[in-house]
Amino acid sequence: MLTDPATDVFEEHRPVLHGVAYRMLGRVADAEDVVQDAWLRWSAADRAEVREPRAYLVRVTTRLAIDRLRQVQSRRETYVGPWLPEPVVTDIGDTAPDIAERAVFTESVTLAMLVVMEALSPLERAVFVLREAFGYPYAEIADALDRSEAAVRQLAGRARRHVEEGRPRFEVDPDRQRTLTERFIAAAAGGDLDGLLNLLAADARLVGDSGGKSKAPLRIIESADKVGRFLVGVAPTGGPGMEFTLLELNGGIGLLAHYGGKPDTVIQLDIEDGLIQTVYIVRNPDKLVSLAFD
Q: Are 273 and 265 in contact (CB under 8 A)?
């Protein structure tokens, strides 16, 4: 069977391109649109002049993602309630640059880190993603962004300072995450307020994203007591048609609830010093489409 060399090259690098675009934009649909636009640029390019296809494709994807981010940021200003990135099932092994760098690579795709990166300018975010998540040298990033290396280093410094100020200090051990998530779900579903309070940090927060399209708090809930009481009040009953699955979402353990075969809710926890610091709940149906059962 004959294959198209241009398509083969692009598909080889698609996981990295999607990884860059998703970290830049926080939404699967936007990332896929950017990758598709990158394909159109690649298919129309004079590929005989391209010495390093991966570098070329990352450069095109990054610039397209910057343009798209500038467009979507204005829409987020009118978003109903808190905005959270779209949860995705992750397989870090497909795109991690090196197994020893898994922890850093994983951190860059968590809901918590993507929320922190929302405070960055599009250029700062691009530099941070390429440098911190994918380990690109400053010189290559400068080429991708058409900036001087000195300017890129300044952008990287500013981005790193912003991120450090809001960086969540969560635990990434999957077994510990799974155990605490299971205890959390059991306590919430069982209406066990004391059990929840034993799991929540005193200054715990709950951030819900519905986009105004389903039920979720329109403001961030703060303090263990308020978070616990809210969760007990809205705990899912697990009635007919409701199915629960634990799986890897955004590099960590998350709970996916399906109702009537359709994704209904994603819950993910940030854990610090053995306690839950933040409860993320995504209920905007537009952000759960990619999690539908096959």
A: no
